[in-house]
Write a structure and sequence with these properties.
- This protein is mainly alpha-helical.
- It has one domain.
- It is 64% helix and 0% strand.
- It has 2 helices and no strands.
- Helix 1 packs antiparallel against helix 2.
- It is elongated, with a radius of gyration of 18 Å.
- The relative contact order is 0.11.
């Protein structure tokens, strides 16, 4: 059997995290939908939106972006709170 066809242990760990992150991303997507609906209702009823909800939505969007970068192999750095499990960031 060719060594190139065997999965390395770090690849097996990574696929575990990709599956886990996909499940988490599904849940976060539902939270973002709820937040958007809440903002719509707030805007409809008060004429404005919640600044706290805007910040929360931005944080969830940024976290999801970091998750996607890891899942698509763009980066080796896992998002919070999993970042402690990954490699140290490059010091430039």
């Amino acid at each position: 059997m060719n060594d190139n066809n065997q999965m390395r242990p770090n690849a097996i760990v990574r696929i575990f995290f990709v599956v886990l992150f996909n499940l988490i991303n599904w849940f976060v997507g539902k939270l973002i939908l709820l937040l958007a609906f809440y903002q719509f209702l707030t805007h409809l009823l008060t004429g404005g939106v919640s600044d706290r909800s805007i910040r929360w939505g931005e944080a969830m969007s940024n976290w999801t972006w970091q998750l996607m970068l890891f899942m698509t192999y763009k980066t080796e750095h896992m998002p919070f709170p999993f970042h402690k499990m990954g490699p140290e960031p490059d010091k430039e």
